[in-house]
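Proteins fold reproducibly. Look at a concrete instance:
___
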Amino acid sequence: MEKDDLKDVFKGLEGTFDTEEPKAGHKERFLEKLNNANQVVTLQKDKKNWWRPLSIAASIAVLCLIAIGVYTSRPTIDQQVAQISPEVSNTQVYFASLIEDQVKLLENESSPEAQMIISDTMIQLKKLETNYKQLETDLINGGNDKLILSAMITNFQTRIDLLQDVINQIETIKTLKNYNDENLTI
């Protein structure tokens, strides 16, 4: 059939189509008649399926709890090092406080003459700190414990020695400056 033929067919059927809504309760009456005739079909009301959204919500809650558990159960590097060797944790606290005190003392001694020495020292301290972090990682990954622990302590001692040497150099610079200022005559 062509398009024109279809149009003619629908024009001929115009007005004979049932376009009205069925009356209220049509479905129940139909099912009741069908049930009486066959005794097979039962009347079922639309049930709301609450299990589906509830199962989705429960799944999301379980995933969130798993994510929180994974996130909180991972100990920090310092905690892992303390589990491997508790003495390292105590030593780290002791040396870190000494180094912090020395750095504060160094920063208080800042003068134009010593500024370059202080900035170079801070760069060297950052490098030593990076090396220390690498040693911690090596210790956690199961390296030779005694060798790594010895290297960690040596790292702390190197930092303290560096700071003491720089403070001594700054004191020497101050002393020379004061001596030269005293001998300067106007």
Observations:
- The longest helix spans residues 145-183.
- Helices lie at 3-12, 26-38, 51-73, 77-84, 86-108, 115-140, 145-183.
